[in-house]
Design the sequence.
């Protein structure tokens, strides 16, 4: 049995936001499925859109256009902390050789940064937080790898932050 080898991968799609976005949600790095579809949280097992649709009491967006409209309607911005890294598949624990993104690409009045998971939070603190004078909150990951966290737990954590904006 051979050990999986890391690939050097780049983030290949832009942040998703409109100019009135107030909350920036950052993941660590796009999953294989998200990189294939060139959009955030594309893995159907990721609970991101399930949680946000519950938080905002709306129908879960399914198509790419619905997801974008959902993000825009709630003044959200989606991006990731990492521009390039070495990674095995979609495994956050395998991430090495990180080059962070340039958050100045987001031209919006962001008031708060939400980190989707501990890895995104740790990477944000290490590479980006010192350059941006914004409050931030690390929330439980919506990734299917975070199976210990129930949908209700995710809803409770995310709603406590997103509904207090």
Sequence:
């Amino acid at each position: 049995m051979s050990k999986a080898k890391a690939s050097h991968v780049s983030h290949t799609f832009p942040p998703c936001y409109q100019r009135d976005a107030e909350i920036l949600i950052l993941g660590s790095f796009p999953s294989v499925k998200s990189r294939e579809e060139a959009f955030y949280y594309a893995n159907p097992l990721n609970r991101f859109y399930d949680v946000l649709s519950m938080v905002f009491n709306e129908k879960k967006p399914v198509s790419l256009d619905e997801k974008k409209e959902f993000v825009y309607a709630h003044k959200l911005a989606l991006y990731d902390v990492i521009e390039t890294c070495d990674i095995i598949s979609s495994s956050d624990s395998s991430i090495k050789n990180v080059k962070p993104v340039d958050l100045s690409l987001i031209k919006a009045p962001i008031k708060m940064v939400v980190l989707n998971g501990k890895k995104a939070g740790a990477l944000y603190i290490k590479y980006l937080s010192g350059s941006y004078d914004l409050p931030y909150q690390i929330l439980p990951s919506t990734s299917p790898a975070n199976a210990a966290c129930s949908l209700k737990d995710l809803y409770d954590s995310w709603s406590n932050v997103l509904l207090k904006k």
User: Anything to note?
Assistant: The CA atoms of residues 102 and 139 lie 22 Å apart.
